Amino acid sequence: MSFAAVRSVIESKVWNQYQGLSTPIEVVFDNVQEVPPALPYVICLISYTSTTEPVICPGGGAVERLLGNLQLSCYAPRAQGMKALENMGAEGMKAMNTMFDANAKTRVKCGRINGPSPVLTGSEPYALVTLSCTFDASVGL
Questions:
Q1: Which domains does the chain have, with CATH numbers?
Q2: pLDDT at position 1
Q3: CA 56, CA 45: separation in Å to the nearest integer?
């Protein structure tokens, strides 16, 4: 399975998008740190919904086809309006929209983007928006 190669492509693209801003925003990845950084920041979550497709031939097994979801959760201080959150969401959309590189060995193509959807309930000192998309990934030889 090519999970590490796919994760590397996605995480690098997301990281570079947020680090390229005039004021970089920290990105936190799955299972990397226990305590979130100072606001603002983004959490990048990658999950897989399907990993193989059957081969239709006698004695055939399955061929790798990685389908998954990418979710970005953008956190900023509460009660300061939606501008910062929506700008962070827009940067995430840029990363998703430009994920595919036809010349790369590992190719990740993002599908429809959902969000940014605000989450403003609770008494936490932050507000957040989430955006997500499906992806289809393949690793060439």
A1: 3-139 (3.30.2000.20)
A2: 57
A3: 33
